[in-house]
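re: ur question from yesterday

yeah so i grabbed the chain u mentioned. its 244 aa long if i counted rite. heres the sequnce exactly as i have it in my notes:
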Amino acid sequence: SSKRIYDVVVSASWWGSEKIERSWHTESLNQGITGILDDVADYLEMYPVNTMAAFREILSQRGLMDKEYWQKLIPFFEWMQRYIKPYRRLKSVEFLVQSGIPVDVFGAGWENAPFANHLNLHGGVSYEETLKIFSQARIVYQDQAEFNHGAHDRVFTAMLNGAVVVSEYSTYLDKEFIDGQDLFMFDWKHGQEQVGIIPELLSDEPRRLAIAFNAYSKADKKHRWVNRAQRILEAVNILYPEAK
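ran it thru and got these structure tokens back, copy pasting raw so excuse formatting
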């Protein structure tokens, strides 16, 4: 019932430059490793999985799943993270820009995005300010920040503040919520079409409110910080049964 002054909110920093480069091409790596890293990056650009899953897939395709190969490539996980995280974040917001959907962006670095002039930039904000912003947003739009088999707290924070979530796909969110009833998800193959749901929601407030209510009910029951704390305490109690 609170006043919603923002239609679509993105709350995340961006630390890229106009051209996001695959840094491993500037290093003295042998052709075999460079080829594997390129294939992993291509896979991550195509499918909503995390870095570990992408490495596993590419190594499996090559028949290189033995422990020795895996351990040799672990140091390159960070390189891949530094590439794919800014790439995906930029790509997700680009879906909105190309669809002509106005978006209010809260987070540092977006003035360096190639389409910055199409964004309503507000700069970086504190976590406390984010809570207020989400309570004033109709829709919170987000990439998964590599938590493609889990979730970012933005999802639950938005739901608990009455906003509808449009998020990059996650296997965990797909298990916990019903896509199209509790939230909406996009992937990297069909994202441009999938964000078309946003104008529909903005033009149909009763539908948006019904979805927000569905999501709030589930998030309120299972996805508050107190629920996470309980799971952590349970894990500690299993490992250290003598703990009080």
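noticed a couple things. Residues 79 and 219 are 34 Å apart (CA to CA). also The chain has a mean pLDDT of 95.
anyway ttyl
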